[in-house]
């Protein structure tokens, strides 16, 4: 993270059904949303660190950071760069993985019908393979590779970087409850994704998730090692609850439910992001309330409060919106709040439908239709239905951005092996008002300001920087929009 079509076809679902008494196959053919879904996953491939597999799609990327971990005599090759720079930050990487895993669980049929399930699984595994390395030793988790200050003084592609690959860890004497618990959540959720296809791998993930949760719970302390880039402002209670909820979902062990009911702390909030997970846990736990666990009613009430603050038709609506109708909480990767809301509204909307439930906001009631319509409107804004009439996803739709604030995308392949020092790198590849030579396909950029205005310049990073967790949260809403009539 840096320092900080208009002609939209109506949703068309084509059922490729050979109807001989039974349905043989279903394909989803809203080509616009399908295209956006495919591309949103391709962007995550462009963020991969380490040794790339042969089927890697962004052709301008190569192997990078193959010595990561060496400084500490451990193997930390792999994982994701978070945004436009070349640092691997544990907290947002884990959140990216958790939200992808939830998408793969909740929208498995949609992703399968769209032909994207394997790509999403591969994206999750790119995270969990790394976490298995980072958590190889008990009561220790490697949480960052790279020196953000030095990295930000250099504008070079990750394949060519020479800045220090400083390794940070948390352990019993230097705890970091947020990161340990978020990584536990990521591994527990991911274990559910791989259960059906790779049991041994799923078991390894779940075992590690349990240990990390115990570690997080028994060694409490806020971690500020990723500050000022990823400071936890909200503390660790949300991550502990989130991890417990995912572990309960993955195991149905009463100890986790007991923790959720007796020990965890919850709060009403009106946003969902890499730092603040309460709204997500509340939605997640609501399904167990709907299935009959009356003790979890307070989570359903809190999930409703979240919806009531965000849904514009609600009497308690209170979050900032642009005149053109996009959530705008703050400049700097603002689209994360847009996809974050679309993500929870989609999942909760489908859950309400499945259990025939509604949300009560004062004297007004909202059902699944309202929630899904809001999620669609937020995604449509990003994809082109906005006052500027342009797409905010690179390589998609009408007039997409050309100057993503992204090191790899801005260095031409023809100059990939050029030796350029850090100061000159900015002159050569950054300070030029020209399109990136490499298309950062599928990246949803930070997006417009609070007046719906957008500046497509590499150095306005608050508007043009992409982040993995903006895209990870777009996968579920786009999967839903691709195949609206598949029942969750
Ligand atoms: C625990 O982590 C701290 C901070 O990262 C580090 O300074 C310390 O050496 C670590 N302790 C052990 C036993 O490795």
UniProtKB/TrEMBL annotation:
Enzyme Commission designation: 3.2.1.4
Active site feature: 405
A Gene Ontology molecular function term of the record: cellulase activity
Pfam families per record: Glyco_hydro_9
GO biological-process terms attached to the record: cellulose catabolic process
Keyword Protease: no
Signal peptide positions (record): 1-28
Domain Glycoside hydrolase family: 33-476
Reactions listed under catalytic activity: Endohydrolysis of (1->4)-beta-D-glucosidic linkages in cellulose, lichenin and cereal beta-D-glucans
Family matches, as Gene3D superfamilies: 1.50.10.10
Keywords annotated in UniProt: Carbohydrate metabolism, Cellulose degradation, Glycosidase, Hydrolase, Polysaccharide degradation, Signal
Enzyme class: hydrolase
InterPro entries: 6-hairpin_glycosidase_sf, 6hp_glycosidase-like_sf, Glyco_hydro_9, Glyco_hydro_9_His_AS
Protein family per UniProt: Belongs to the glycosyl hydrolase 9 (cellulase E) family.
Listed name of the protein: Endoglucanase
């Amino acid at each position: 993270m840096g320092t900080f079509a208009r002609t939209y076809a109506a949703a068309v679902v084509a059922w490729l059904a050979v109807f001989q008494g039974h349905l043989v196959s279903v394909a989803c053919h809203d080509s616009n949303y399908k295209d956006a879904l495919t591309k949103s996953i391709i962007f995550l491939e462009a963020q991969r660190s380490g040794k790339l597999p042969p089927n890697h799609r962004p052709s301008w990327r190569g192997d990078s950071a193959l010595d990561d971990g060496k400084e500490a005599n451990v193997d930390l090759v792999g994982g994701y760069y978070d945004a436009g720079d070349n640092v691997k930050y544990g907290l947002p990487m884990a959140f990216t993985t958790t939200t992808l895993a939830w998408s793969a669980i909740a929208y498995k049929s949609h992703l399968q019908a769209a032909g994207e399930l394997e790509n999403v699984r591969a994206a999750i595994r790119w995270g969990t393979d790394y976490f298995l390395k980072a958590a190889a030793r008990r009561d220790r988790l490697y949480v960052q590779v790279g020196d953000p200050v030095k990295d930000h003084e250099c504008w070079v592609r990750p394949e060519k970087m020479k800045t220090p690959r400083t390794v940070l860890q948390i352990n019993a004497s230097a705890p970091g409850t947020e990161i340990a618990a978020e990584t536990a959540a990521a591994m527990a959720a991911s274990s559910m994704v791989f259960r059906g296809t790779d049991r041994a791998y799923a078991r390894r993930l779940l075992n590690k998730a349990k240990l990390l949760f115990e570690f997080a719970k028994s060694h409490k302390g806020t971690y500020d090692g990723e500050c000022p880039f990823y400071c936890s402002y909200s503390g660790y209670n949300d991550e502990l609850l989130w991890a417990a909820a995912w572990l309960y979902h993955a195991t149905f062990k009463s100890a986790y439910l007991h923790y959720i009911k007796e020990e965890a702390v919850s709060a009403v909030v009106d946003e969902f992001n890499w730092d603040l997970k309460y709204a997500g846990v509340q939605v997640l736990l609501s399904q167990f309330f709907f299935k009959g666990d009356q003790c979890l009613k307070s989570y359903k009430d809190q999930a409703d409060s979240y919806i009531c603050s965000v849904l514009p038709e609600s009497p308690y609506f209170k979050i900032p919106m642009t005149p053109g109708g996009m959530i705008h909480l703050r400049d700097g990767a603002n689209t994360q709040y847009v996809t974050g809301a679309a993500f929870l509204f989609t999942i909760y909307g489908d859950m309400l439908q499945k259990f025939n439930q509604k949300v009560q906001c004062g004297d007004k009631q909202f059902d699944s239709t309202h929630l899904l319509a809001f999620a669609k409107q937020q995604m449509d804004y990003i994809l082109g239905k906005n006052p500027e009439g342009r797409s905010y996803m690179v390589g998609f739709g009408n007039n997409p951005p050309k100057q993503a604030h992204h090191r790899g995308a801005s260095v031409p392949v023809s100059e990939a092996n050029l030796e350029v020092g850090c100061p000159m790198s900015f002159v050569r590849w950054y300070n030029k008002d020209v399109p990136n030579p490499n298309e950062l396909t599928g990246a949803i950029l930070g997006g417009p300001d609070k007046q719906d205005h957008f500046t497509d310049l590499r150095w306005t990073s608050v508007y043009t920087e992409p982040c993995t967790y903006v895209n990870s949260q777009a996968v579920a809403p786009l999967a839903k929009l691709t195949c609206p009539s598949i029942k969750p």
